[in-house]
Amino acid sequence: MRILFFSDAHGNEHAVRAFLKKSEDTPHDLMIYGGDSFGYYFGADSVISLIRERADVCLLGNHDRMMLDVIDRKRDASELIKKYGDSYRDFHAISPENIDFLRSLESRYELRSGRMRMVFVHGSIEDPLDGRIYPDAVIEDESKYEGIDYVFCGHTHHKMVKRAGGCFIVNPGSIGQQRDGKGISYIIFDTETGELTFHIVDYDRASAEREAERCESDPEMRGRLIEAIYRKCIKRPEGRL
Q1: Architecture of the domain made up of 2-230
Q2: 192 in helix, strand or coil?
Q3: Interval 84-137: pLDDT, tens
Q4: Is this structure's pTM higher than 0.90?
């Protein structure tokens, strides 16, 4: 079985559309999404609709949970706008169908293929919603990974393959906001051969930049959003701000 795993779209409709188009030419049997459709960029409602249509399994991310709390008036949007930008002003634009879809999601999914046991989370085994495992993290308690062959996670936006005892921990990076300077990405994992491949997606970054310039009112946050689009290995077009 070939599993396509991607995570952390963060409202970047431009990137998600490019990814879904590329995925049509990447053979896979199961598409799993690690969550976080909200935060930072401004196409969350379209992103959710697109992913709902294509993914076989979707997980709840921490930004999804925070947006639901805003919608349910359990949390003030102003604190999230200050931290993550104006995309959190758009909660009124999320369709009722997409809100209901988000409410149905879990933060952990387990899958077996033959003798292989796989766990999919947004964060970590210890904290499926908010836990973070970076490439240089030290796993202090490997016992939590006993009996699991692979843990697939997102949240940090950093591509990663590392071990905790006999378990491999894999992060595909982000499909919406790269942070490691290596581009937006997803993975294909073949459960029969054990082959794991990272796939980088090119997309219309200039359109994403223009959207950030148009929609984000805070200059510092606007700069951060645009910088992430072009970070490190991605050359920014000449003549743009």
Answers
A1: 4-Layer Sandwich (3.60)
A2: coil
A3: 999 999 888 999 999 999 999 999 999 999 999 999 999 999 999 999 999 999
A4: yes
